[in-house]
Amino acid sequence: MKANFCNNCGHAVEHRVPEGDHLPRAICPSCEHVQYFNPRVIVGVIPEWEDGRVLMCRRNIEPRLGLWTFPAGFMELEETTAQGAAREAFEESQADVEVGELVAVINVPYVSQVYMVHRGRMRSAHHGVTPESSETRLMREDEIPWDEIAFPTVWHSLQYFFADRAAGREQIHTLSLERKPRDPRAQEISTGEPLTPS
C-alpha cells in the first residue's frame, strides 16, 4: 500500500526512511506527519449449536464467491476480537453467538493479515441468509465441504476446532501461512502446527 497524499493535511508526501526507522514511510514535508500502514486483523468465530453442529456460511461476495466459511471479517475500531467476531456472526448469518476463547491465531503475511478465530455457542438455532451469505447451514463434522472451503485459514481453524473437541480440550493454536497456496489445504507453506488433511 502506498500513499500519495498526507492523511493529516492533504499535502503530497515523500517516501523515505524516517530517522530511527528501518522502512520507507509516507512523510509529509509540510506538517511532518508520518503515515504507517499496518496489518489488518480478521476476527472470526466457529459457532456451535447444542447438538454439536457448527454454523457455516456460503459466501455471497468476492473473494471466493460460493465457497464455505464460518463467520469472519475485518475487526473494527474500538471493539475486542470477541465483540468483532460476534458482530460478524450476526452480519453474515443472523446468528446470535456467545463468543468464547480463541481456537487459533494465524499469520498470513502475504496479504498482511492476522486471523483471530474464536470458539462460540449459538444462543438460539436461528440463522439465515444475508447480503454476505447466500446460504447458511448447521453441519456435522462429516458434512463439512472440505474441498469447498474458502480460505486456508478457515480450513486450518476448523481442523483445530474438531481435533480439540474430539480430544476434550481447548487450546490456542498458532500458525503462519508463509506464501499463497495453490490449494487451501497445502501444508508445505505453513510453519507452526500444520495439520494433514484426512
Question: Could you characterize the architecture of this molecule?
Answer:
With about 200 residues, the protein is of the alpha+beta class. It has two domains: about 1-35, Single Sheet (Ubiquitin Ligase Nedd4, Chain: W); about 40-190, Alpha-Beta Complex (Nucleoside Triphosphate Pyrophosphohydrolase). It has two helices and twelve strands; from the N terminus they run βββββββαβββαββ. It has helices spanning about 80-95, 150-165; strands spanning about 15, 25, 35, 40-50, 55-60, 70, 70-75, 95-110, 115-120, 135-140, 175, 190. β1 and β2 (about 25) form a beta hairpin. The longest helix has 16 residues, at about 150-165. It is elongated. It starts with 13 loop residues before the first strand and ends in a 6-residue tail after the last strand. About 30% of the residues are buried. The model is unreliable at about 185-190 and about 195-198 (pLDDT under 50).
What attributes does this structure have?
12 strands, Ubiquitin Ligase Nedd4, Chain: W, elongated, Nucleoside Triphosphate Pyrophosphohydrolase, disordered C terminus, 6-stranded mixed sheet, 2 domains, 198 residues, alpha+beta
